[in-house]
Write a structure and sequence with these properties.
Number of helices: 13
Shape: globular
Mean pLDDT: 95
Strand order of the largest sheet: 1-2-3-4-5-6-7-9
Helix content: 40-55%
CATH architecture: Alpha-Beta Barrel
Low-confidence stretches: none
Number of strands: 9
Radius of gyration: 19 Å
Strand content: 15-25%
Length: 329
């Protein structure tokens, strides 16, 4: 099982807080120094729950400051963009990073973002399918029509290093989508705190995914968990509560629905008790991560920089946990 860092780039009006985008570049450097596998960044628009509207730009900055770390979008929201633009931008990231891009894609889930772009959520599945098909064809060097049926066919003049394309991940929030993603042969990314009640449910989703993969396909399962390893877990718990409050305020639809049916899960201590957040010493956190290895998770996406947690605490947590995880593995 791999350990990576995943940031939603949430922002808070904390006095003296450093610039969040610079924090993410620092996080990439610490993740590489700590031996983590990858850094993944989320795309969000128009609210402080996520202030990275353009993952390719941020990932390119991280690529310039790292040499080994893989760099991923989680996710690029396809219905908000022209597919040809995304194909060009992510091809450039793969080139600039020397073939280190992981491309995570999704269809979006926050109502205010759809409203801001003027996109009807009812059309998002069709837009996602059409967008991903166009991006993969463009990556492969096939002619695509950016302007639709009447547009002239074009080919990318910059293609990815990884052929025929970078690894593809699809974010899944509804269990019924898992077989469809698996049959594409794509890997899946899950955010259990927002959708699941128990680790046993996660294990069932992993099994369903594996059973639905085409014969010979080797997809991977990634699961996002809030992690803190260090001497001040009380700071992490306070930051985690701020993070959960921001998720509810930013119309995070799946988590809002979960809390509506189980109001106690708006409290940080209850989410931690359910196993979706792990705080403690490095050895304690690594020991508890073994449970996710046993469930069949291939990559833990550690959310380290949440809720305005101080950058120094984040750095200490990433490097300490990375070292302990590597020695245990």
């Amino acid at each position: 099982m791999k350990l990576s860092a995943f940031t939603v780039v949430d922002a808070y009006d904390t006095p003296g807080a450093a610039d969040r985008l610079a924090d993410v570049v620092r996080l990439a450097e610490e993740a590489e120094r700590g031996g983590l596998s990858a850094l993944w960044v989320a795309e969000h628009h128009f609210h402080g729950g996520g202030i990275c509207p353009s993952p390719p730009v941020l990932l390119a900055a991280c690529a310039a400051r790292t040499r080994r770390l893989r760099l991923g979008s989680l996710v690029s929201v396809l219905p908000f963009h022209r597919p040809i633009d995304l194909a060009e931008e992510y091809a450039m990231v793969d080139r600039l990073s020397g073939g280190r891009l992981n491309l995570g894609v999704g269809s979006g889930y926050i109502p205010m973002e759809f409203e801001g772009f003027g996109v009807d959520p009812a059309t998002k599945r069709e837009a996602f399918d059409r967008g991903l098909e166009t991006i993969l064809a463009a990556f492969a060097g096939d002619p695509v029509r950016p302007g639709g049926a009447l547009g002239a066919p074009v080919r990318l003049n910059v293609r990815p290093v990884q052929a025929p394309h970078p690894p593809i991940w699809i974010a899944v929030q509804r269990r019924e989508a898992i077989p469809f993603v698996a049959r594409r042969g794509a890997s899946i990314a899950l955010v259990p705190y927002a959708t699941l009640d128990t680790p046993e449910e996660l294990g069932a989703e992993v099994r369903e995914y594996r059973e639905s993969l085409p014969e010979g396909a080797r997809g991977e399962v990634a699961a996002a968990l809030h992690l803190y390893a260090g001497p001040h877990p009380e700071r992490a718990r306070a930051a985690f509560q701020r993070y959960l409050d921001s998720r509810l305020a930013s119309q995070s639809a799946f988590y809002q629905e979960k809390v509506k049916h189980a109001p106690h899960l708006a409290r940080a201590e209850e989410v931690e008790r359910s196993g979706w957040a792990i705080f403690g010493s490095a050895s304690e956190v690594v020991h508890r991560l073994d449970a996710f290895r046993r469930l069949g998770v291939d990559e833990v996406l550690g959310i380290f920089d949440f809720g305005g947690l101080a950058p120094d605490d984040v750095s200490e947590s990433v490097c300490g946990l990375g070292g302990a995880f590597a020695s245990r593995s």
